Amino acid sequence: MSSSLEQLITIASRYWPSNRNGDYRPGQQISPEARRLHELWEQEIKNINRWWAFLDELRGELPGFSIGDATATPDACFRCVVYPDKGRPLPDLHWVVVGCVSIIAPVYAVYGVQFEDREKTRVFRAMDFELQQSEIKTPAEVIARRVEAEFGFTRLPREMAQMPVPLFVQWKEPPETTLFHALFTNEPENIP
Question: Domain coordinates of the chain in residue numbers?
Answer without folding.
Answer: 5-183
